[in-house]
């Protein structure tokens, strides 16, 4: 079972999540603001964090930005707003999932299970890759991806991406010049049991294109189908 850190200034929300989590066999630690979340992440060991955006002392965005400096803990962000800007901002900071209030505690528990399985599977899948030392160079070396080290260079400059951007980019590289349906990408990158909507894929494609700069057009939109990484450009 999982050690869950729940961060929300609304005690009723924290208790509702904790009740469902404990019922599922998990252990829960509660925090009421972003500063507490940072302190607990530094001093404790948790498997996953659920954090609200709007909080006193320090908001969820700022807390996640600081936590990502020293921890890769899976993060589910909660928000009373479902605005695209908030989702993009969260994903740019490296969160793994986004849930809009009000939500079903049961659905949240399913999202936790799905996210933890994906995180576990990703670590397992990366082990053999490290020994193959995969390096891909495109655009006469202008675009370089070290798949084993999870490093991307654009015109010799290292580009920092979120964990999910790396997953998406490397999957597309390994399947270059192949038409990838939206369903295929979501299934392979997020997991077949992903509970979000497919707009999350579009958001990450936008973030990935932004990271690739002038090489953004290597990712081709296939209307009504999905996307293709065109390595022949």
Protein architecture, described:
The chain has 233 residues and is of the alpha/beta class. The protein folds into 2 domains: 115 residues, Response regulator (Rossmann fold, 3-Layer(aba) Sandwich); 70 residues, Arc Repressor Mutant, subunit A, CATH 1.10.10.10. 45% of the residues lie in helices and 21% in strands. It has 8 helices and 12 strands. The strands form 3 sheets. A 5-stranded parallel beta sheet has the order 2-1-3-4-5, with helices on both faces. Helix 3 links the parallel strand 3 and strand 4. Helix 1 packs across helix 5 and helix 6 crosses helix 7. The chain is elongated and about 55 Å long. About 4% of the residues have low confidence.
Rg is 18 Å
Sheet with the most strands, sense and barrel status: 5 strands, parallel
Provide mean pLDDT, rounded: 86
The CATH class of the largest domain, by name, is Alpha Beta
Query: What's the count of strands?
Result: 12
Query: If helices are DSSP runs of H or I spanning 4 or more residues, what is the number of helices?
Result: 8
Give a topology summary:
Elements: E1 3-7, H1 11-23, E2 27-31, H2 34-43, E3 48-52, H3 60-67, E4 75-79, H4 84-93, E5 97-100, H5 105-132, E6 135-138, E7 143-146, E8 151-154, E9 157-159, H6 163-174, E10 180-181, H7 182-190, H8 199-212, E11 219-222, E12 226-229
Parallel strand pairs: 1-2, 1-3, 3-4, 4-5
Antiparallel strand pairs: 6-7, 7-8, 8-9, 10-12, 11-12
Helix pairs in contact: 1-5, 2-3, 4-8, 6-7, 6-8
